[in-house]
Specification:
Protein name: Sodium/calcium exchanger membrane region domain-containing protein
Structural class: mainly alpha
Largest sheet: none
Distance between the termini: 84 Å
InterPro entries: CaH_exchang, NaCa_Exmemb, NCX_ion-bd_dom_sf
Membrane topology: Multi-pass membrane protein
Main location: membrane
Pfam families: Na_Ca_ex
Length: 178
């Protein structure tokens, strides 16, 4: 009589955390991120003053790099594993999440916060940059294929936007509401 052994797969393994533990852990992580975000925002004015970095460059280029650090690892690893579609999905999914959830949620929260006016009027420069970037990404992804040259174009576009926000005059950054 031959004994068959069953290979364990990922589907056979149950959840690693209970629902209560996962909720508590997510709440603690959210609290830690909120506290760190407050410290980060408080230091931006000091960095602008001490080092002369443009505030728009910090907000458009540096903060997203730090904020999306967790997405950079799979964004670099998956193309090396010959899965560029997954890397594109991660990047586009992140941008969609920010535009459809985070920005409108921030506007709604600002309505209830005293002295924190915020609306969806981002000014002509910011709107033009977002529109231009969306058109470039759409054009590059339309055929469903990816290669090194398309990645190079996207990196050049990011560098172009970085140089733009480095040199944009302070009067064109954001419209102040008072």
């Amino acid at each position: 009589m031959r004994m068959q052994t069953k290979m364990r797969t990922e589907d056979d393994v149950g959840p690693g955390l209970t629902a209560g533990c996962a909720t508590l852990l997510m709440g603690l992580c959210t609290l830690a991120v909120a506290i760190n975000s407050e410290y980060l925002v408080d230091t931006i004015a000091q960095v602008v003053r001490d080092y002369g970095l443009p505030e728009s460059f910090i907000g458009v280029i540096l903060l997203p790099i730090a904020g999306n650090a967790c997405e950079h690892a799979p964004g670099r690893r998956t193309p090396q594993q010959d899965r560029p579609g997954l890397a594109i999905g991660i990047a586009v999914g992140s941008a969609t999440q920010i535009s459809l959830l985070v920005v409108p949620f921030s506007v709604i929260v600002a309505w209830f916060a005293d002295g924190k006016p915020l609306d969806l009027d981002f000014g002509a420069l910011n709107t033009a940059v977002v529109t231009f970037c969306n058109l470039v990404v759409l054009t590059l992804l339309l055929d469903g294929r990816s290669n090194w040259f398309k990645g190079y174009i996207l990196c050049c576009m990011y560098a172009f936007v970085g140089v733009l926000y480095w040199h944009v005059p302070a009067s064109m950054e954001y419209r102040g509401r008072g």
